[in-house]
Amino acid sequence: MKPYPIDNIRNVALVGHGGSGKTTLAEHILHLSGATDRIGSVEAGTTVSDFDQEEVKRKISLSVSVLPVEWEGNKVNLIDVPGFPDFIGDMYGALRVVDSAIIVAPAQADLDVGFENAWEQCEEQGLPRFVFVNKMERDNADYPGLLATLQSLYGRRIVPIQIPVGAQTGFKGVVDLLHMKAYVGHDKEGVATEIPAELVAEATNARDALIEAAAESEDDLAAKYLDGITLTEDEILHGLQMGINAGTLVPLMVGSAGQGIGTRRLLETIIEFAPSPTHHRAIVAKDKNGQEVELAPDPNGPLCAFVFKTTADPYVGKLTYFRVFSGTFHGDSTVYNSRKERDERIGQVYYIRGKNQVATPGIPAGDIAATAKLQETSTGDTLGDKAKPLTLEPVHFPDPIYQVAIAAKSKADEDKMGPALARLHEEDPTLHVRRDPETHQTLLLGMGDLHLDIVMEKLKRKFSAEVVSEEFRIPFRETVVGSAKAQGKFKRQSGGRGQYGDCWIELEALPRGSGIEFGEKIVGGAIPKNYIPSIEKGIRETAEKGLIAGYPLVDFKAVVYDGSYHDVDSSDAAFRMAGNMALKAASEKTGVVMLEPELEVEISVPDAYTGDVMGDMNGRRGRILGMEPAGKGRQTVRAIVPMAEMLKYALELRSITRGRGRFKTKLAGYTEMPHNVAAPLIEKAKKEREAQQDH
Q: For residue 34, how far is the Cα from the chain centroid?
């Protein structure tokens, strides 16, 4: 693959909902350009983009794939982005390194949540975008309905630059409003023809709207248009280019990826109107002093390359995908990772097409490539020159919303699990792993159940670390209510030296979050000072194991105020047992209750789903704190909800809101659990204790 001048490069992300046809569209573009000699199939698992074993098995994209296409002296770096919400992290990374995006939408009146997520991210990144209406050949295809929906949501920014020839099973081509030609038939054979007579009036009206939109992109053009002066072809194209780059105009195209209709015009439109790296939005880095530096896409400038994706494989090694924003990235060199403050030795650099690698001596500014076996570098890092280090803002990935508890199947699996999970986190920053200090479980956190299923499959297949999910243990606690005094007396005689320890304690409840306090008020030497720590140890050990359901006893104060000892038989062990017995005896007088953790939940939902979400919260024993408008037709609902009621909320909220709801949580504290909820836990613990005693 030859190098291309920066003005002849287009970096474009294919984004949209899962199943909208992005991968199939990429296959047809690759075949059309001559990059492949056959069109791969998602169903058959033969696409260039979806080459991973799990992608082939599940028939969906799980990771971004870079697909460079060469067309008439230009290079288009297509990045096929997964559309399922569980893999949204890859979209965040991809949109940081492209200059525009094509949002693929099936021809239906309702927008899928994947379209909305992609649009929202393009807005945040300030990315020019195009909409490609796919699956026009389907029986229920509804192009007018989709156009109406888009224009109602996004206004006059949505401007068709094509209209369909035929509808549903009769769909056979597109009318190009820019050049007023019809392109009928499959792209390999299709040629430009005259517009069918029955579409001339519709095409003329649509072109008038297109010219008006182009004129509004620049004041001089708007003045000419309002004065009734006919704009030239070049002026129309210039106006469109200005509007697209500014994001005030979003061209709408139509086609059928499955039948290869409309893909040629899509590719030609990308080259004609998608901005090159020289028109990329301003890229600002920080130098070693923290001062902002605006980067020009100059191959001779200071090296600044941004890592947007890494893949981990125990056999192939780590592959690091990057976009060069400034300078030239040379193979067989040393670069500086400014975020990690480490040198990295670079071996070979490659252009990537799916799983295939084409070696090249260097990658100039504006292009996208990969290199292998970097030791320190991960997603979001900046690579450059140590003499003039530059750092780009890392990608801010969404926080995980779903978690499962996992355990290794064997000791050998346990040894492999930790390093393997660390490698997978490098590959996917939306994956988090943590060890819960209270329940002693390993928790896997991600964006949904499918996401974590895939991670567990990768652990087994790629790293030979087999894990199983286990029941998630809620970190419940116990506490006392009120105050009481009680004695703990441990006395044992067995022929030789006996064991004797005796103490009286005063037990009282403390406010939530106080933990455990211990004190002593011994007078007159009733208990020697050296035995006091043993009493405290006995109390704390007992509290750790719990008294009624096996959960830690917290938020109490125990004060030793009296007792007795024996000169010969007293020991640390005896007084530890006395502390144990005293705590149990006192707690029987005060009473013990269960505490459950509560989460403060903030849920963002479209207005239409607010009632359903609030009703669901009430059903989870939640307390609604309030609701406020969040703009763009959304509401923010705040509530306090028991953690036990939120274990699968990510999946349930997705179901309630058709994927449009989002939420985040933080620990709010602990509160007393209702008796009817606590009773089954206490009964279960009682039976387990009895079973252990019988055993």
A: 35
Q: How many CB atoms lie within 10 A of CB 7?
A: 13
Tokens of 491: 């006395």
Does 405 have pLDDT greater than 80? yes
Tens-digit pLDDT profile for residues 128-164: 999 999 999 999 999 999 999 999 999 989 999 999 9
**Percent of the chain residues past pLDDT 70, beyond the cut:** 99
Instruction: Please report which helix (H) or strand (E) contains residue 55, including its range.
Output: helix 53-58
| Beta carbons within 10 angstroms of residue 428's beta carbon | 27
Burial class (CB in 10 A: 0-12, 13-18, 19+), 227: exposed
Output the CA angle 282-287-292, nearest 5 degrees: 40
Select from 6, 25, 151, 141 the least CA-distant residue to 74. Answer: 6
**Beta strands 442-446 and 432-435: pairing type?**
antiparallel
| C-alpha pair distances (Å), 272 with each of 245, 291, 432 | 12, 36, 42
553: β partners = 478
Strand partners, 266: none
- Rounded to whole angstroms, the Cα distance separating 600 from 17 reads 30
Matching residue, tokens 């573009």: 29
Model pTM score:
0.89
Q: Tokens 């620049």 correspond to what residue?
A: 218
The Cα-based distances of 521 to 261, 297, 524, 627 in angstroms read: 88, 75, 10, 51
Quick one: tokens of 165? 């020839």
* Longest distance between any two alpha carbons in the chain, whole Å: 117
Among candidate residues 605, 620, 601, the one with its CA nearest the CA of residue 666: 601
- What single-letter amino acid sits at 260? G
Contacting residues for 630 by C-beta, under 8 A, at least 6 apart: 604, 636
Sequence letter at residue 625: L
